[in-house]
Amino acid sequence: MSKVDLSVKIGDLYLRNPIMLASGTVGYGSEISEFTDLNTIGGIVTKSLSLKPRKGNPPQRIVETPAGMLNAIGLANVGVEEFIKSKIPFLKKFDVPLICNIAANSVEEYVECTKILTSEETIKAFEINVSCPNVSEGGLQFGNDVKAVGKVTEKVRAATSKPIIIKLSPNVSYISDFAEVVKKEGGDAVSAINTLVGTTFDINTRKPKIFNINGGLSGPAIKPIALAKVLEISRKVDIPVIGSGGIMNWKDVIEFMIVGSCAVQIGTLNFIDPTAPGKFVKKLEDYCLKNGITKISDLTASYLID
Amino acid sequence: MFIIESPVVEVKILQDNIFLLKIHCPEIASIIKPAQFLNIRLSSQSYPLLRRPFSVCDVEGENIYLLFNIFGEGTRILAGKSNGDLIDILGPLGNGFILNDDYETAVIVAGGLGSAPFPFVTRALKDKKEILSFVGGRTSKDVITYGMKNVFTTNDDGSAGFKGTVVELLNSKIDELEKKNIKVFGCGPTPMLKALKEFCVKHNFVCEVSTECAMACGFGICQGCPIESTSNSEKYLLVCKDGPVFNVQDVVI
To answer: What residue spans define the domains of chain A?
Structure first.
């Protein structure tokens, strides 16, 4: 038995520890399970699901940038129906909370997806993606509009009794305004942050390096921005924040918790070292023991600012 | 599939800007197949951040070989490795060439660095099939024939023996090829693979090509490396997981 209580509660969602695997970086769990025992992870968030399958963007979808990467996958996914049929049976084998990420073009589609999925017992919570920068409809069209985020939250809230987490965009002036409306409309938590809009061009061809022109920037390059956004929400709004953005090691996890995260999501790192998140758990426990912390949740928003 | 740190045995310059790296890695050497690939982490810091994919060039006992040129920061780091340095390898990844089906002559077609997987193919087919190798490059420095046999070469100015593309070279031998029961194995830049597909479709030759695409993970989770399928326009295939080797009939090149 661990001497430190690593568990985290987000509404009715219980996580055995604060390490979650971020949407779009673990597929539907099968590939990553070859590297990490999913039963040791706090929770996994599926690739964004839409009502119908999406093909996604043509290549090139990915390019490396200084200390980060741009992606414009375009929400390629199997669709809700195929997910239930062919992906859930595999995920059922693990004792890990499954959080379904939903992406949609309209409020109605968000609601429809949630209604279909909510009866699946394996799904413990929903993460609503209102912030994908890589699709022409939906995504940021919602994520940049406080009223639209409020509306999506309200309608999805009415469609499920399971915890709902709204994944917020950093591409806004005040992210706390969005967290505020999520809280007001009955959301259980927010994830902060999704990727930042970025681009890069080839100086010889003068063409963008990715097909979509813009992509979402992730990786260590965005960590200071993500920390600032989490801190902003934490200081202004009383809502659980799941922190993400460029976490590369266990110390980053602690830092995200100190600025206000109750849990964290590991994303880009899964592409580079899919074994890393599983190894963080022991390191977090060691840190807590060394610092006299008996409940890791005490770290959340434990910042000292004069 | 492993993530493993394995020591460099030797780094040598094959020609001009072309390097050959020998790594002692029995775990992967014992299971990897020709044209499968490895995704290599070149820095524990933030740059280069992502792993870089390399086709396996050859396997000899417990050692694996990679062939590459210095193209960016990642390959510069790799070329600077010394004996004993550890390389962080994820692999083996993807699907290799199908070498043992019903044909008598393997026709290898390589353009530039597309020669990389063929020393291992040549080794695997030794004493089993006849091999004819067609190798091209822009300049004579780009023509890489390392580890191959029965080689015909070409480049843009003709100084490598034939003047033209590698598919034009292949076409010049069409009478001979049509008399044989052949299977074509190709690897090289996309325009070359496109021309090779047209050539093989026209002459009804079975052909597999090893493709490439920018990718992050190499094992299917980033979805970064789509390739258009000929049978299902609603869904992309992934170069990393469904490929990198495809029958030319199955993908749009």
So the answer is: 8-56+74-197+218-299
Q: Pick the residue with more confidence: A139 or A29?
A: A29
Domain A8-56+74-197+218-299 belongs in CATH node 3.20.20.70: yes
Q: Is residue A100 among the annotated active site residues?
A: no
Task: For residues B112 and B188, give the distance between their C-alpha atoms in angstroms, rounded to a whole number.
Answer: 6
pLDDT for position A131 = 79
B190 touches chain A (CB under 8 A): no
Task: Read off the pTM.
Answer: 0.95
Question: Taking residues B38-49, what's their average pLDDT?
Answer: 94
Q: Which domains does chain B have, with CATH numbers?
A: 2-93 (2.40.30.10), 105-210 (3.40.50.80)
Instruction: Please list every residue in chain A whose beta carbon sits closer than 8 Å to the beta carbon of residue B41.
Output: 272-273
**Count of CA atoms in the C-beta half-sphere (13 A) of A17:** 24
Task: Tell me if B245 sits within 8 A of B96, measured CB to CB.
Answer: yes
Task: Dump pLDDT digits (tens) for A55-103.
Answer: 999 999 999 999 999 999 999 999 999 999 999 999 999 999 999 999 9
Tokens of A25: 């970086």
Does A53 sit within 8 Å of B235, measured CB to CB? Answer: yes
Taking the Cβ of residue B1 and every Cβ of chain A, the question of whether any pair is shorter than 8 Å is answered with yes
Q: How far apart are CA A199 and CA A204, in angstroms?
A: 16
